[in-house]
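Recall that a protein's primary structure is simply its ordered list of amino acids. Everything else, from secondary elements to tertiary packing, is in principle encoded there. The following example makes that idea concrete.
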Amino acid sequence: MALGRTRKPSLDSTPAIIAPGVGTPAYFPRVATVAARSVCMVMLVCAPSLLTACEQMSSDMGDASNSLFPPSPAEAGRWAVDDSDPENQRRGVLLIGNSGFGGEPVYVNLYRLYIDENSDPVVKATAIQALARHARAEDAVIIAKQLESKNVQIRIAAAKGLQRIHNPKIADVIWKKLIQEDETSAVRVELAIALGQYSTRDSFEALCSSLDDRELAVNLASADSLRLITGADFGLEPGLWRSWADANPKALRADVPYYYPTFERQLGTLDYLMFWAIPTFEQPGVPAGMRETAPADGAPQNEFGNLGEKG
């Protein structure tokens, strides 16, 4: 056997390179190729995570920049009326709606205008949110009409907005929408919460019906509202609720200790690092148009001013 003779490689393999003076095949190019392929595969797999991390870092840096250099009221006002850019409109309406001067008549009229006429669903949903924060009782009618929107984001915003406004004229609109089986659970959860401020028999029956809903979130929200309007607690048993109400003519409360819910979260390390702009959260309040009542045991004391007007 002649030294340096090797077997002919297959057509689909990498050609062998003979190491000088030895005669054994050495597949160095193949090893490099496999390593390169492995690196490429890792990069492809990790690319979405890297992009997400970069986007998150960019978002965090943007939040820090906005905290250091927040937009001026004049700039927010210009954004709010920028017809050429819906994103600017959304940002402007959001900033003004969350500000202390967002309840000025000129801005409230702008929210109403956008709810009625703006074609962008995100801008319209933001305007609903802003109006609900600074609304009068009659604005509930404007917002309730948006429960018929084809856009689910608008319907969710409307359902949440009605939690902040008390107007018995739209109670029937809320409970009828609550029991519509083709409505999304996200909307029905918010409607069940809003219905907790109306202690009527129709509201009671609609909430009892929602206890049989397939979505647990709808069941729990309905049970919470039933406890509010009655002061009783029969869990998720609609039969027990109805039997008890039939046997008690005064089962429904005259004054419901209702407070609209707000968002709150635990502060993280980054929040404390940005010590110049530590987040503060809005506290639950009495809906505009509702006479404030003494809170029930365990209900939060209303030591804050509601942004809406009390009736």
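Residues 73-166 form a domain with the Leucine-rich Repeat Variant fold (CATH 1.25.10.10). Residues 10 and 16 are 10 Å apart (CA to CA).
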